[in-house]
Design goal:
It is a single chain. By secondary structure, the chain is α+β, with helices and mostly antiparallel strands. The chain has a single domain, classed as Beta Polymerase, domain 2. Strands 1-2-5-4-3 form a five-stranded mixed β-sheet. A hairpin with a 2-residue loop joins strand 6 and strand 7.
């Protein structure tokens, strides 16, 4: 990663600086819970991953990918520690076609303050690229595997090709491209 370029784009000193400590703390609770249940790897994705690199974007939820077989156990593990289902999910289930079969869920944080925290989880079938590459090359932070920026852009392109209706992925891809 070209840290100089990212610094120029965002004005931040290092990747992850745009994410508040209270959010990193909550992400640690989530990832610790999932790792204790043998669930993982947990990959940061979507706008949340863009924010990690200091790329300005609107993040309506904190998006994570896990292996498809881990989605249901992850959901139950987080419900067990006080997270609640989002009554108005915005995720993949609202997508047309085959993508409705991708395992997914959205939860809300039990911690209530001036920040509504919505966490979205989907299976790797959202972006099969993550089944094909060695996730050990990803940076780790608070239990999350964070794709390199190029891999993130590639994953957006692969997912957007699979579902042309999901134009927001293309928008995110162009944001990454513009920052390179």
């Amino acid at each position: 990663m070209d840290k100089t370029k990212i610094h120029l784009v965002s004005g931040l000193e290092f990747p992850g600086a745009a994410i508040n400590d209270w959010l990193w703390d909550e992400i640690s609770v989530i990832t610790d819970t999932l790792e204790k249940g043998g669930i993982g790897p947990i990959v940061a994705w979507g706008d949340f991953a863009l924010i990690y690199y200091g790329i300005p974007t609107v993040c309506t939820n904190y998006f994570f990918l896990v292996p498809d077989a881990c989605v249901a156990p992850a959901h139950q593990a987080l419900l067990d520690i006080g997270y609640v289902d989002n009554p108005t999910p915005r995720g993949i289930r609202s997508m047309p076609g085959d993508r409705q079969n991708v395992p997914s869920f959205e939860i809300l944080s039990p911690i209530r303050n001036n920040h509504l925290r919505r966490f979205a989880f989907e299976g790797f079938s959202t972006c099969p690229l993550f089944n094909k590459i060695d996730l050990k090359i990803f940076e780790k932070r608070s239990g999350l595997a964070i794709p390199p920026l190029r891999t993130l852009a590639h994953s957006f392109a692969a997912a957007a090709v699979a579902v042309p209706e999901k134009y927001l992925l293309l928008q995110s891809l162009f944001v990454v491209w513009a920052c390179y």
